[in-house]
Amino acid sequence: MRIAVDALGGDHAPHAIVAGALDAARESNFTVVLVGPKASLSPLLKSEGLAGRIEIVDATEVITNDDAPSMAVRRKTNSTIVVAANLLRTGQVDAVVTAGNTGAFMAAGLFIVGRIKSIDRPALAPLIPTRQGRGVVLLDAGANMDSKPENLLQYGIMGSIYASQVLRRDNPKVALLNVGTEESKGNQVTKEAYHLLKSADIDFVGNIEARELLHGEVDVVVCDGFTGNVLLKALEGMAHTFSAMLKEHFLRDLRSKIGALLLRPSLRGFKKQFDYAEYGGAPLLGINGVLVKCHGSSQQVAIKNGVLQAARFVERGVVHNIQRAVAELPPKEKG
What we know:
Helices cover 44% and strands 15% of the residues. By secondary structure, the chain is α/β, with parallel strands linked by helices. It folds into two domains: 1-116 and 286-335, Isopropylmalate Dehydrogenase; 120-283, Isopropylmalate Dehydrogenase (3-Layer(aba) Sandwich). Helix 7 links the parallel strand 8 and strand 9 (203-208). Helix 3 crosses helix 5 (102-113), helix 6 (149-165) crosses helix 7 and helix 6 runs antiparallel to helix 11. The longest helix is centred in the last third of the chain and has 26 residues, at 225-250.
């Protein structure tokens, strides 16, 4: 197995990216293909003891947050994400992992690697931390701003396969994000999607409200990309605000500081349970290949887990199983 890692993607590239990729290679038996400038990356690989397991493919350009993603993918042909996507498309690697520009990641997946036949729109599927520590798959988290009922059906099927085969959930429970739990709630899209999901060969448990999401009682939550992205960013903002407020209270006076010292072990466990670094990255499901997007601020641990996650996708044939599942869906009615 060969996994390409975008060595220049992310806020802490290339050192944290390379270190995380090397850690992943030490834990498993696959080859890491670092995509980036050889002159800069080669010195980082000396004395690592992974001869034959680490390769470098030269790429000198980077797509930044200031670039228009689709245009940059077409024009910056020697950028790390474009070179990595072409390696995947031509079968030279089995997966791609990046912490770089999300828009460029999705554009490269769509325009270079291509969609799975019968998948209308791919979905970004991060794993959201939950109270029970298992996490819940949320899709779509921003690959598409608008979705049709048929898209939400495909998201439910893809999410169920991901949860079953990568996360090892037995008969994963799939829910539809809505404003109420009743079948009659929602807009026209969610009402139609409800009936499609109910008839699908998955364990669809009905609607779920956003306030129930973090309880961890379901494995997959389906929504359109606009709603999913707003929800994801709201949760991230809430977590950062809660952490800052907690720190302020613990540093308020001597008694608070003593209390914080006594609670330190419990607080570390709490922080780890809700740390995105422990959950790897967000796969782009519906693409004809394995692509995993890590958080832009990912450090060494997050990159390592993202690479290991990509390896599990490849080992368990997730792309092939999605292809087979959507091929069995009845044809869409015209008009």
